[in-house]
Design brief:
By secondary structure, this protein is of the alpha/beta class. The protein contains four helices and twelve strands.
């Protein structure tokens, strides 16, 4: 799908609320807040929302998670979620972005929405000189690294009453050894990397600025809430 097609399908002029939370946000309370936001958007009580945050170290399981892929269940807390996908890791140094949009008003095409999220991440990484790509039948964003192919960003979404939630995570400078307790997204034959592991020295604020810049041409204008 071409970038122009993604923009045409999903861009809307209505302002999307931008929320950034400082510090490490507990996962259970964050899920409750996201559920509340989604319900309010569905009822027309508040605008769509992009929520950017970090979590303490934890594993989450999606609707396709296989128990055998949780290699070290005692390493970090494990939370079940209703998002698609398998096991993933969240932790310090990783930017998580929960994307709560009214997909019903944006054409209702879930595949186009996923492609748009992928393009958003690809465009953001390009700002740091990183060439990244999507892969057929492999969820996430991938880069060539040390003669192999590693994942640098993950996606997992859910749609309820036409509203999207959950979203993406981008590895800025997390402890990559923390991924060893799972088979990330069920893919054992490929590795995990980050901007720091690729030699990119940057801050979370600089990554946020690039994410915000690249989000708006695809989905619509952002305004801090």
């Amino acid at each position: 799908m071409l970038r122009e097609e993604i923009q045409t399908n999903l861009w809307r002029p209505e302002t999307i609320a931008l929320q950034k939370s400082a510090g490490l946000q507990a996962f259970p309370s964050s899920m409750l807040k996201m559920e509340t936001h989604v319900a309010s958007i569905a009822e027309g009580q508040e605008p769509e929302r992009l929520w950017m945050l970090e979590h303490p170290s934890l594993y989450t399981s999606g609707t396709s998670a296989k128990p055998a892929d949780l290699l070290d269940p005692d390493r970090f807390p494990v939370f079940e979620t209703g998002r698609g996908g398998q096991y993933t890791y969240h932790g310090p140094g990783q930017r998580v972005a929960y994307v709560m949009l009214n997909l019903a008003k944006r054409g209702g095409d879930v595949r186009a929405f996923v492609a748009a999220l992928e393009q958003w991440l690809i465009n953001t990484l390009a700002d740091f000189g990183v060439r990244s790509e999507r892969r057929e039948n492999l969820v996430g964003i991938w880069v060539q690294h040390d003669g192999g192919e590693d994942k640098i960003a993950a996606l997992g979404i859910r749609v309820r009453r036409g509203i999207t939630f959950h979203g993406v995570s981008l590895n800025v400078n997390p402890d990559l050894s923390h991924f060893d307790g799972i088979v990330p997204c069920g893919v054992a034959e490929r590795g995990i990397t980050s901007l720091a592991a690729l030699g990119i020295k940057t801050s979370m604020d600089e990554v946020d600025a690039a994410l915000i810049k690249n989000f708006q041409p695809i989905f619509g204008p952002l305004e801090p809430s």
